[in-house]
């Protein structure tokens, strides 16, 4: 237990009067990829934001690499943890490389400039994310998918022990989705980074996640190894829709297909 | 930095000729609202002071008029008050007429008269006009005659005096001076002075302090604050000779029928003792 | 990409530009005396006064105020993540204007004149007004211990409108003399000051400006949003509060000394961002130097264009800054919305 990278105990949180999360328990071990799955509004993004230290005023406890998120200075936290947000924002036209170099911010003292090693790190991250080609282009001129890769490169450049991903693949085409999650897996398995990721694509989750936490209305509906959690019963209950679950004959992992309204009606008639 | 009059300046400088009013009221106006202090002076001189029922919010107002109620400011007249007071004539400065500020009053059927008193000629024209409006042409002409005579006496007294360079300060933060086109400039010339700001581009103009030092005025008349400000430059002839004068703004700055007195006062500042001598002789 | 070397070179370049602007400012004026006369032993008393009591002090004051407005502009733009913010958006200028206008109506009070030297009455009141506005806006915009940027912006806008109303109210009660003193006070101008006071002004401006310059990298992170900056390790609350207070102090000082001089805090940062990129580590110092040079040159134009008449410097900054700004926006800005 003490060795877990993320430890969440009895976490509850409300936006003003609107409860968002209640009694969440969760751990992520180093080298592990845990998927956060659940319908819209189930509190996935809120959980990511809370663990990242961006929201305060929660009940319960959150520890990241042994640091108490409620009391640790943000700078120290940012050296242990990096976030890839759902919709990154950019106020001024920085270049992709400049954005990636911002990942060094928590590691740099006061007025220090990025060293050559820092720049090399950033360029390497851009390379690995397939973004080296637009390193010097202003971020505003890039497509949503390209920006997402830049922001992922920034997270790598931050050299975190914990990666929090909030639906990072939503704007990516299938090739870049796979490339990005391969990188995530590489970080987890080779660098022993703990990953907590929100995913909408259940098949990606089935392929890459070691464990799944199913959220529903701010509570944990089910948690455990991916194969156990992704049952027909769990998914239909949590998402309140019919799904088709099968096994991918190529990988042996689960294959989940949502069913259209027409198919669902037909099933009911049968 | 002190309160200043460029005030008037702006109000008085804008228009050139009196704007004719359309009204052709046979009986003379009985209830008058006046927004221009200089016009108020003319009314008082024509013994029409009692007909003024309200004044503008920005004075100063001569004599008993100061106690009257306000009917708004010259640029934002209080229409309800004006109607309430059964006003039959509003007198304002020409600059407001130029900005179209009078239409709203005229639409209420109340006559508006715009007077431009920013120059000697304007003062005489205004006097004559008020005489016509109130059917006091004779008295107005009489006063005009006295004024002309008074000014002529000053002219004669100063005719052979050497010209001295004069700076007339209206405001000091930033420096504002009286330039050509102002009645002050005419007063300076009449008083055997040369306006240091002879090339100012407007009657009351923001002006370079450097140019003042460069031109070394022999007399400085400052209406803007403590005249001690100029002491920091002892090489200025005016400072060296003790010819820096602090004058209350309304002594010289608000033009009107007191022009001859003003001309005498200005002359006494530029050439002290001029009139003491002439009366002695 | 910004390196320490590029930063140093750019700062040196802009320092040279500022020195050149100062030299131009000292060289031109109504008085027939120029920069070269500084080394002239036989200079007349009059020309010494023009150089040392008028022209040089005024040029220095213009440089300090231009720098202050410009760096306050960059900081507020970073804080609001909006390149169109200017130093006056946050309402502090409204407070300074009220203070100055109140001072103009009270300036004759003997009790006041006995306590404060007359030339300082208006600046002291204006600065007090700016501080009052700062505290008030900060209090209102702090919700649950956090400074909400949108509330700051909204409070600032409302406070400015409120200040305008208060000033109209005071104007309507003022005498004609006071009225015009008020109008001239609100219209921006650069005044000469005694050298000792310029020293004090320099300290009052350079300390907050330096503190802002050190926030460059945090401002960069803040451009990714408050949450993004927090996740990059920025103490966002402290950064926002510090920026608001320091920027408001600089704006308050500038308005207290010179009234409202428009365009400096908007145009200079904007042009430099288009030219040199958005990195605040560079933008902050370079805007200070560039803003200083800009206001020195604008004030020189105000003194020289119609000499010996003077134009209000705000007229020059708007006349020069406005069209240039539009031209640049059209040529460069359309492509990426900045």
Identify the notable features of this structure and list them briefly.
heterotrimer; A: alpha/beta; 6-stranded mixed β-sheet; 10 helices; C: 338 residues; two-stranded antiparallel ribbon; 75% helix
Describe the structure.
- The complex is a heterotrimer of chains A (270), B (281) and C (338).
- Chain A is globular, with a radius of gyration of 19 Å.
- Chain A contains ten helices and twelve strands.
- In chain A, strand 9 (211-216) and strand 10 form a beta hairpin.
- By secondary structure, chain A is of the alpha/beta class.
- Chain A has a six-stranded mixed beta sheet, sandwiched between helices. A four-stranded antiparallel beta sheet of chain A has the order 2-1-4-5, with helices on one face. A two-stranded antiparallel sheet of chain A has the order 11-12.
- Chain B has 13 helices and twelve strands.
- Chain B has helices spanning 6-13, 37-45, 79-84, 94-98, 103-106, 120-133, 137-158, 183-190, 209-215, 237-240, 249-252, 259-270, 274-280, and strands at residues 32-34, 52-55, 72-73, 76-77, 89-93, 111-115, 164-172, 175-178, 193-195, 204-206, 219-222, 244-246.
- In chain B, strands 7, 8, 9, 10, 11 and 12 form a six-stranded mixed beta sheet that branches.
- In chain B, helix 6 (120-133) runs antiparallel to helix 7 (137-158) and helix 7 runs parallel beside helix 12 (259-270).
- Chain B is globular and about 60 Å long.
- The relative contact order of chain B is 0.15.
- Chain C has 338 residues and is mainly alpha-helical.
- Helices cover 75% and strands 1% of the residues of chain C.
- A two-stranded antiparallel ribbon of chain C has the order 1-2.
- The radius of gyration of chain C is 20 Å and the shape is globular.
- Chains in contact: A-C, B-C.
């Amino acid at each position: 237990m003490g060795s877990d990278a993320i430890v969440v105990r009895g976490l509850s949180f409300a936006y003003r009067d609107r409860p968002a999360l209640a009694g969440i328990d969760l751990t992520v071990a180093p080298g592990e990829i845990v998927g956060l799955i659940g319908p819209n509004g189930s509190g996935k993004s809120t959980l990511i934001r809370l663990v990242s230290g961006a929201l305060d005023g929660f009940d319960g406890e959150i520890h990241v690499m042994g640091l108490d998120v409620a009391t640790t200075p943000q700078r120290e936290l940012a050296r242990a943890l990096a976030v890839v947000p759902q919709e990154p924002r950019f106020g001024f036209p920085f270049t992709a490389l400049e954005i990636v170099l911002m990942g060094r911010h928590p590691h740099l003292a006061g007025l220090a400039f990025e060293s050559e090693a820092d720049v090399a790190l950033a360029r390497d991250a851009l390379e690995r994310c397939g973004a080296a080609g637009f390193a010097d282009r202003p971020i505003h001129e890039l497509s949503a998918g390209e920006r997402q890769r830049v922001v992922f490169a920034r997270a790598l450049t931050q050299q975190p022990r914990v990666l929090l991903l909030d639906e990072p693949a939503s704007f990516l085409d299938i090739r870049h989705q796979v490339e990005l999650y391969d990188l995530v897996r590489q970080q987890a398995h080779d660098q022993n980074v703990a990953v907590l990721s929100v995913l909408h694509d259940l098949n990606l989750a089935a392929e890459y996640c070691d464990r799944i936490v199913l959220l529903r209305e701010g509570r944990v509906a089910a948690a455990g190894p991916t194969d156990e959690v992704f049952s027909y019963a769990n998914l239909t209950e949590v998402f309140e829709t019919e799904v088709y679950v099968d096994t991918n004959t190529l990988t042996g992992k689960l294959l989940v297909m949502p069913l259209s309204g027409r198919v669902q009606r037909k099933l009911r008639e049968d | 930095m002190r309160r200043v009059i460029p005030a008037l300046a702006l109000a008085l400088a804008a228009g050139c000729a009196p704007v004719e009013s359309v009204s052709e009221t046979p009986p003379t106006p009985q209830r008058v609202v006046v927004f221009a202090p200089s016009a108020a002076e003319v009314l008082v001189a024509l013994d029409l002071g009692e007909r003024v029922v309200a004044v503008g919010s920005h004075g100063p107002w001569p004599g008993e008029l100061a106690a009257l109620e306000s009917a708004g400011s010259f640029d934002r007249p209080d229409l309800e008050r004006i109607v309430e007071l059964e006003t039959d004539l509003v007198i304002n400065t020409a600059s407001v007429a130029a900005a179209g500020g009078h239409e709203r009053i005229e639409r209420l059927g109340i006559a508006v008269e715009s007077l431009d008193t920013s120059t000697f000629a304007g003062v005489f024209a205004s006097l004559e006009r008020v005489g016509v409006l109130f059917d006091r042409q004779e008295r107005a002409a009489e006063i005009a005659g006295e004024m002309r005579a008074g000014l002529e006496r000053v002219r004669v007294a100063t005719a052979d005096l050497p010209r001295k360079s004069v700076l007339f300060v209206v405001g000091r933060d930033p420096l504002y001076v009286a330039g050509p086109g102002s009645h002050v400039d005419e007063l300076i010339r009449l008083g055997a002075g040369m306006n240091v700001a002879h090339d100012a581009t407007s009657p009351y103009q923001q002006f370079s302090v450097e140019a003042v030092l460069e031109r070394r005025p022999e007399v400085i008349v400052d209406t803007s604050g403590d005249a001690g400000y100029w002491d920091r430059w002892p090489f200025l002839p005016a400072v060296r000779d003790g010819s820096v004068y602090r004058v209350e703004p309304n002594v010289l700055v608000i033009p009107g029928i007191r022009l001859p007195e003003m001309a005498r006062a200005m002359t006494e500042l530029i050439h002290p003792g001029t009139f003491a001598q002439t009366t002695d002789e | 990409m910004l390196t320490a070397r590029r930063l140093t070179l750019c700062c040196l370049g802009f320092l040279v530009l500022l020195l050149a602007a100062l030299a131009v400012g000292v060289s031109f004026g109504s008085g027939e005396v120029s920069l070269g006369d500084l080394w002239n032993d036989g200079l007349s008393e009059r020309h010494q006064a023009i150089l040392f009591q008028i022209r040089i002090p005024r040029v220095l004051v213009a440089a300090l105020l231009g720098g202050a407005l410009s760096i306050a502009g960059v900081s507020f733009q970073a804080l609001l993540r909006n390149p169109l913010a200017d130093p006056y958006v946050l309402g502090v200028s409204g407070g300074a204007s009220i203070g100055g206008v109140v001072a103009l109506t009270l300036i004759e009070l003997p009790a006041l004149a006995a306590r404060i030297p007359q030339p300082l009455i208006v600046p002291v009141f204006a600065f007090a007004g700016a501080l009052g506005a700062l505290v008030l806006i900060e209090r209102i915009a702090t919700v649950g211990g956090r400074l909400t940027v949108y509330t700051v912006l909204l409070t600032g806008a409302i406070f400015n409108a409120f200040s305008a109303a208060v000033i109209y109210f005071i104007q309507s009660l003022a005498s004609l003399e006071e009225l015009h003193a008020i109008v001239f006070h609100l219209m921006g101008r650069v005044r000469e000051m005694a050298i000792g006071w310029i020293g004090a002004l320099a300290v009052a401006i350079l300390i907050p400006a330096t503190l802002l310059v050190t926030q460059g990298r945090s401002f960069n992170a803040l451009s990714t949003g408050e949450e993004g900056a927090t996740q990059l390790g920025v103490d966002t609350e402290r950064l926002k509060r510090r920026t608001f207070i320091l920027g408001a102090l600089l704006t308050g000082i500038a308005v207290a000394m010179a009234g409202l001089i428009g365009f400096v805090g908007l145009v200079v940062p904007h042009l430099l961002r288009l030219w040199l990129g958005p990195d605040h580590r560079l933008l902050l110092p370079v805007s200070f130097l560039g803003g200083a040079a800009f206001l020195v040159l604008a004030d020189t134009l105000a003194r020289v264009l119609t000499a010996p008449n003077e134009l209000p410097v705000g007229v020059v900054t708007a006349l020069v800054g406005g069209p240039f700004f539009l031209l640049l926006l059209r040529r460069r800005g359309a492509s990426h919305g900045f």
